[in-house]
Amino acid sequence: MAKCDEGYLCDVCGQPVERLFESDLYLRYVIGMLDPEVLHTTPERHTRCNPALAQFIVHEKFTPVECPGDFDKRNLDPEFVRQREQLVSRGYDRLRELARLDLPIVDYPLPEFRGKYSK
Description:
Layout (H helix, E strand, L loop, with lengths): L23 H7 L20 H4 L23 H21 L21
């Protein structure tokens, strides 16, 4: 089977990433952490398969994820955690919204990140 026929497989667990709001790749894109030029070359994974980022999602439709070890948010500066939770949760909410919209990919990011990588 051709790679493009396989869909997007998680680089961590190997299972398909079936929904936009399950995508760590697109979550990082909408919150300004990923240049759109590398979307097609960056490995995909489920949001849950990246606990270092997923632990910051605070949303009623997302089951909390823990990230044991040095990067556990309980070991980090409370102000940093508050800011990161706000941003990543907004990004997750944006992905849920995008699943219902028909927008060009350049309009996916949160407003403050649209055009961040424009030349």
